[in-house]
């Protein structure tokens, strides 16, 4: 009973009993309809929440993890790592109470005056300029980087990694048609932990879902408690 009370007060879980019941029933349905899979106990909660957020079971087939990526992300979150994102939609979608659990700051730079000025001066994209600014300011080091919108952001990030930048985890999930496949392939060859959605699919919603899954895992000590909650 004490464990259930603790979970109910945990900001990584739904606030109300009805909200928790709906979410956990949704997870049960996803588990049932998804069927067998080859993901680890830490990877599946991330994929499951991505499916939950989109009602798209194809993410079971197209989501890839570098070995140890979830563990790296959990360590970073629990150490208070910043979360650098390529779109305001991601920043707006993240739950503030969950971010406060470990003091994770969300940084979105595309509207930063220096980034805008750099993009205008170079003729490049704001996404490219944002990565260059983040690299110069040391914001990439040890950060969790979520890319759900701009392939140019991800390509620029991989170039920065090639120069020695070391984010703790990269969520490479840009959506679109131009440079999307190339950006994801480049990330999968980079020497950093990553989670990728293959092909053209992705988006800010997927990054938010993955981050919320990681935050819940971190809050629960790295253990997926949804099954225990349902059985309790």
UniProtKB/TrEMBL annotation:
InterPro entries membership: Cbl_synth_CobH/CbiC, CobH/CbiC_sf
A Pfam entry, by short name: CbiC
Pathway(s) annotated for this protein in UniProt: Cofactor biosynthesis; adenosylcobalamin biosynthesis
MF (Gene Ontology): precorrin-8X methylmutase activity
Domain Cobalamin biosynthesis precorrin-8X methylmutase CobH/CbiC, first and last residues per copy: 22-216
Domain of life assignment: Bacteria
Biological process according to GO: cobalamin biosynthetic process
Alphabetically ordered keywords of this record: Cobalamin biosynthesis, Isomerase
Record-stated family: Belongs to the CobH/CbiC family.
Protein name: Precorrin-8X methylmutase
